[in-house]
Amino acid sequence: MEIVVFGAGALGSLVGGLLAREHPVTLVGRDPHVTAVREDGLRVTGAVETTVHPQATTDGTGLDADLAVVTVKAGDTATAAEQLATGDVELVWSLTNGLVEERLCESLGDRVLAGTATYGAELPEPGVVCCTGVGELRVGELAWGVNNHTDGDSEPSRRAQRTAAACRVAGLRATADPEMATRRWRKLAVNAGINAVTALARVKNTALLEPISPVAARAARETARVARASDTDLAGEAAVEAVETVAAATADNQSSMLQDVRAGRPTEVDAINGAVVRRGEALGVETPTNRTLTELLRLWAAANANTD
Questions:
Q1: Which residues are catalytic?
Q2: Which end of the chain is more exposed for a tag (fewer CB within 10 A), N or C?
């Protein structure tokens, strides 16, 4: 399978690097990382170790592939969609944080699949990605029965199964999920409960456990309430349990938002906690914890921008 990974940051480089063990892969990212990969290959360290030699480019236009895996920051989703639309890509699988798949659909139509990833990854230097935790990838349709790509009332779609199988061939843990509509909200609850809290407290994921952080739990429960108001069946305790499960599986990881804060980069808080707040406002659901977390990260971003 010809694969493009659009957004060769930490997660994209890890997923793309592992896929490159069995598939022709093109990484789309930024320099100096792209140049290092092009010249010397991509070295994967940590929980998985390998060196691969995928194609690498900073230009995401005009690309042809059977599958594009989108791993950009949420704020770059529209740009990724526009650039992918200039090429010939059969399927587009989003692993980006937040409810961003609809933005991809605006440019790419019904080719878009939703996904989640619990692999931990960091970029210690150009050309190197560290796997800080082996997790799982999930892929499925945005809604049940999209364009008759499903095979039955309890089966994932054929194209989701094909995508998951391509990952498993390369040694990745991947599952085709028939209930991705619910899982998208569960993913949002996990991100809402982990990312902003760890970024503000400057702690690894393990600090949220034993017992679960009350702030993280409240953020997850609020997300579940908004999900239910959006006609998605997600219980509050199920959302909190998902936060605990992911935090435990990635205990030694720095969340992506914590990595962004420490590097002085913009965060995805508006696409995660901010998305919960906006959807809650539209549906009449109060989200005070997510609102506070969002406002605090925005305050940090404004102060950080003023010092550049």
A1: 187
A2: C
